[in-house]
Amino acid sequence: MNNPIARLTSLLWTGLTVMGIRSSEEPSYRVLSEDGDIQIRLYQPMLIAETAIEAGYSQAGKIGFNRLARYIFGGNVQNKEMSMTTPVFRESIGQLETKNEATQHAPNINKWLMSFVMPPSFDLTTLPEPSDPLVIIESITAKKVATLRYAGSLNQERMTEYSQILSAWLDERHIKPLSSPRSAAYDPPWTIPSLRRNEIHIDIE
User: Fold this and answer.
1) Short-list 68, 66, 45, CA closest to 124
2) Rounded to two decimals, what is the model's pTM?
3) What's the mean per-residue pLDDT of the chain?
4) Whether residues 113 and 170 fall in one domain
5) What's the rounded Cα separation, in Å, for the pair 125 and 139?
6) Considering the domain boundaries, does residue 80 fall inside one?
7) The domain spanning residue 146 has which CATH number?
8) From residue 109, how far is each of 8, 51, 57, 60, 78 by CA, in Å?
9) End of a domain among 118, 140, 162?
10) Cα 168 from chain centroid?
C-alpha cells in the first residue's frame, strides 16, 4: 500500500474499530420490542453469501472468513469488489463423530455455516457470481428475529452460554423458535473485548 492517503485511511479505520466505533453497513431492521439486552427485530429481506466448514470452532472461523472474504474482494466471476458489511453470522449445522480409545464414541460439534450479508445495492441479477463452488448465495425473506447482545470474547463457550439464555427467555414467553441459534459478530478481532458487539440471533414466529 504505497498511497499515503490509503495508508492513513487504513490506520484510522483500524484505530476506530479498536475502540468499537463501527462504520460497516448493517442489514435493515426495525425493533419491535426490547427487554434489557434482548430485542425482537423485524429484518427486511437480504442476500447472504454463505459457506459450510468442517473443522473445530477456531479453525472453521478462519477458513470460512477467508473463503467469503475472497469472494467479496474480487474472487468472483466478474472480478468485482464489494464492501464489507456486518454482522458475520455463524451457526452449528451438525456433528461429526470421532472415536478414541478412551471413549470409543465421542461426538464433536464441528460442522459450521458462516455467512456475510451482501450490500443492499445488489440484487440476485447484479450480485457477482462466486468463483468458488463452496460459496453459495441465498435470498433471505423478511423475518422476525430474537437477539441477545453481549460484549467480550467471541468463542464457542460464550456462544453456547448466551444461546441458552436467549432460548430460555423465549421458552418462558412461549415464543416459538424457527431456527437454531447463530452468533453475529460486528467487530474485528483486534477490537477491545469490552467494546465488542456480539449477538445471538434466533428466528421466531
Assistant:
1) 45
2) 0.83
3) 86
4) no
5) 12
6) yes
7) 3.30.200
8) 42, 16, 8, 11, 36
9) 140
10) 22
d(CA 31, CA 43): 9
Distance (Å, whole) CA 36 – CA 205? 21
How far does the chain reach from its first CA to its final CA, in angstroms?
Answer: 48
Rounded CA-CA distance 32/203 in Å is: 14
The CA–CA distances, whole Å, from 178 to 40, 100, 201, 202 equal 14, 35, 11, 7
What CATH number does residue 118 fall under? Answer: 3.20.80.10
DSSP class per residue in 15-83: HHHHTT---SB---EEEEEEETTEEEEEEPPEEEEEEEEES-HHHHHHHHHHHHHHHHBT-BTT--B--
Cell of 171: 421458552
**Which candidate, 183, 201, 175, 144, places its Cα nearest to that of 30?**
144
Same structural domain for residues 180 and 204? yes
User: Is the residue at 17 inside a domain?
Assistant: no
**Is pLDDT of 151 > 90?**
yes
The pLDDT confidence band at residue 22, using thresholds 50, 70 and 90, is: low
pLDDT of 14 higher than 70? no
39 with 51, same domain? no
